[in-house]
């Protein structure tokens, strides 16, 4: 039963499993040193070995080479100094820079434990060989992947992907006219004011959008409409992404992204060459979204039927 549970959560507890394995091996190695009354601590090996091979080093260099934090390096150096295995000395050219060196006791301690260290190394090699896996290759590969894109960024992408999958996009129906209007009023009243040019489209979307060759999209989650956006036909080659509005509780959940993609897909299906839009400089989130989708702009204000200041962004489709 326990084995089944552990199998079920193996990917969820992946990091913890690696940590436990490492701790178990380190504990066994520590016990071997204890049997020999050695004061060496396995956590100190990386620093000790580096100093033994390279004579001296700064904290910064140890942190960079060993890929551990400054506090971890400093903690190791403090322990080693207390054990009289290292000493520190100011730099010749820069007195503010401190170098660490192995003491004679430090060198002797490593020499005395050389047989045990060789046994540990060979045993670990044998264990890895018997496992049938390139363990260090796997670790190196994982490190490189996380160096290219860290865990947090990967998790953000996964969350956004899941959020997108939950959103259902539906097209225009007369029964949604009031929702289309209310969502846009909610958005406009938060950032600007409702103008006569807005009301023209919001009061009769069928006349000014649908019958002119455009489309209106609605985003729905669990049968609740939480966002809308229109594709307004400008000419044979151009559609305008307009009347984008997402209710406050659904903002930041990829609703705008999915609606914008729906407009772009619609324009592409009509063999359009451009998708254009008007926006305002204070709409930072919206502008970032459009840039992610490939929209470009010269940031110059454009004269329109709106009183609010706007500039145009354009996406080339083909």
Describe the structure.
The chain is α+β, with helices and mostly antiparallel strands and 318 residues long. The strands form two sheets. Strands 4-5-6-7-8-9 form a six-stranded mixed sheet. A three-stranded antiparallel sheet has the order 1-3-2. Strand 5 and strand 6 form a beta hairpin. The chain is elongated.
Would you state the CATH class of the largest domain?
Answer: Mainly Alpha
| Biggest sheet record | 6 strands, mixed
Would you report the number of β strands?
A: 9
User: CATH topology of the largest domain, which one?
Assistant: Arc Repressor Mutant, subunit A
What strand line-up does the widest sheet have? 4-5-6-7-8-9
Euclidean distance between termini CA atoms: 57 Å
Query: Quick check: average pLDDT?
Result: 86
Q: Can you identify the CATH superfamily of the largest domain?
A: Winged helix-like DNA-binding domain superfamily/Winged helix DNA-binding domain
What structural class should be given to the helix and strand makeup?
alpha+beta
Question: How many individual domains?
Answer: 2
SSE diagram, text form:
Blueprint: H1 2-8, H2 14-35, H3 45-54, E1 56-57, H4 59-66, H5 70-82, E2 86-90, E3 98-102, H6 104-112, H7 114-131, H8 135-148, H9 151-166, E4 168-171, H10 177-191, H11 196-203, H12 205-210, E5 215-221, E6 224-235, E7 238-246, H13 255-269, E8 274-279, H14 284-292, E9 311-316
Helix pairs in contact: 4-5
Provide tags for this entry.
single chain; about 325 residues; alpha+beta; Arc Repressor Mutant, subunit A; Aminopeptidase; elongated
């Amino acid at each position: 039963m326990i084995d089944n549970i552990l199998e079920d959560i193996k990917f969820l507890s992946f990091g913890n499993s690696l940590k436990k394995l490492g701790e178990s091996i380190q504990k066994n190695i520590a016990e071997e040193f204890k049997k020999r009354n050695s004061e060496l601590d396995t956590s100190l090996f990386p620093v000790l070995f580096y100093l033994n091979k390279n004579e001296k080093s700064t904290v910064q260099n140890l942190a960079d080479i060993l890929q551990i934090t400054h506090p971890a390096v400093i903690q190791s150096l403090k322990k080693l100094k207390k054990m009289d295995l290292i000493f520190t000395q100011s730099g010749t050219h820069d007195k503010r820079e401190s170098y660490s060196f192995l003491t004679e006791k430090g060198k002797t301690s490593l020499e005395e434990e050389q047989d045990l260290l060789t046994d540990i190394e060979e045993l670990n090699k044998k264990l890895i060989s018997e496992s049938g896996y390139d363990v260090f290759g796997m670790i190196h590969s994982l490190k490189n992947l996380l160096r290219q894109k860290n865990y947090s960024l990967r998790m953000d992408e996964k969350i956004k992907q899941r959020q997108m999958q939950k959103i259902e996009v539906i097209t225009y129906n007369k029964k949604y006219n009031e929702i289309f209007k209310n969502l846009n009023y909610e958005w406009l009243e938060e950032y600007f004011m409702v103008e006569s040019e807005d009301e023209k489209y919001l009061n009769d979307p069928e006349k000014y959008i649908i019958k002119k060759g455009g489309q209106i999209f609605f985003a729905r989650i669990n049968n609740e409409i939480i966002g809308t956006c229109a594709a307004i036909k400008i000419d044979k080659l151009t559609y305008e992404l307009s009347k984008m509005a997402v209710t406050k509780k659904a903002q930041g959940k990829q609703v705008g992204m999915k609606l914008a993609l729906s407009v772009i897909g619609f324009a592409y299906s009509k063999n359009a060459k451009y998708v254009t839009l008007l926006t305002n400089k204070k709409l930072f989130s919206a502008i970032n979204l459009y840039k992610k989708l490939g929209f470009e702009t010269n940031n110059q204000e454009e004269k329109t039927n709106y009183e609010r200041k706007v500039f145009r962004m354009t996406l080339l489709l083909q």
